[in-house]
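Section 3.1: Structural characterization of target chains.
Under the original work plan, the team committed to producing a structural model for every single-chain target entering the pipeline before any wet-lab resources were allocated. The record below documents one such target. The sequence was received from the expression subgroup and is listed exactly as submitted; it comprises 296 residues.
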Amino acid sequence: MLDFQAITMDKRSELHPLLYAAGRQDCVSSFANMLLWMGGYAEYAILDGFVCVRIRGDHGEFFYFPAGVGDPAAAIERLRQDAAERNIPFRLGGVTEENRAFLETAFPGKFSFTTNRDHFDHLYPVEQLAELAGKKLQAKRNHINRFAAEHPDWRTEPISEQNLALCRSCAHRWLAKHGDKDAAREFGILKQAMDCMRELELEGLLLLDGNEPLAFSMGNRITEKVFDVNFEKADADVQGSFALINREMARMVRDRYPQVELLNREEDMGVPGLRKAKESYRPILLEKSRALWVEA
């Protein structure tokens, strides 16, 4: 069997360059997400230059589609052999349409595919979120204009060690309003992200009204052309705060990284309110499938 290792912070120097060079657009191919969200139940191995992640969770064991440069067929075959040695079904997750086309060509008739809308990523052209142009996004501009009229002293600051405490206070207020089990888990992950911002090369923006923090957004560049927005928290009672931090974060990314084309605002996990909010910005959906080896 293959020797899989835990995903820990000290593995970033090995994994991040391979993931970055792979050029995948999906959020699970980010080292930050692997560490923060999957660190407790994910392991990795490097096979033929590809990062191969093994997941052991509530829905059984599976592997993510290998991330790397070149032909992943050999890595996939080694994963298939590993699954056989563990006596488990061979399943690949995070299979994009491009990956699916590869599997159907390289392994014809050997995989069946299922999709789950809950796990599609929401991609947006940076310029679309930075300017909110056009009739379909008029409501977003209206929210921002109302916010600006009601909060004439608003401003943004890049997140730094000097204002990180204000972001933490925002996060605490969010947790107080959403104090269920899922929110508590996300808060713990967010706290870890804040503690490791420098090591993970996370960047972000803080929205203030005078000296009062109202919202913040954090993310990281996962490829040359894609920036992943990992966290966004705002005071839902302050109308327009979400729309404004969203727009200003897009503008920050555009100014810092002119070569970035897309913002990945990740999955909605089937949460109705979250899906409605993400769809209201007119995303490009990055479809992902689960592939099951079915050859007798």
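The first strand starts at residue 5 and ends at 6.
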